[in-house]
Amino acid sequence: MGWQHRYTQQAPAEKQIRVELVPVTGVTCPRCGGADIRRYPIANHLGPRMATKCQDCLYPLAFNRPTESDNWPPFRAVTYDWEASPAERAARELAVRDPGFATRASE
Length: 107
Fold this sequence. Notes:
There is one protein chain. This protein has helices spanning about 85-95, 100-105; strands spanning about 20-25, 35-45, 45-55, 60-65. By secondary structure, the protein is of the alpha+beta class. The radius of gyration is 19 Å and the shape is flat. The chain contains two helices and four strands.
């Protein structure tokens, strides 16, 4: 599927959209020992992610960036997988080292 297909999809015909919880085989939960492990898309404060969680106790096993085959989010920016520019990386590092920088810079 090409990147342009994400922008030409039709609106869903269903009234409710359901997310498929894909079973993950061969993995057990480290907290409860359950074998019902599922992987599904979520909206996270860090951006779109694929969550892998135990369905018995909801313990999170992994949060990964979605691949193109995951088709999540449905409308994804063309630049989503690009590396950050040197200026953006420097700004992120400065914000981590000095959390008050963004506030002082905007004054």
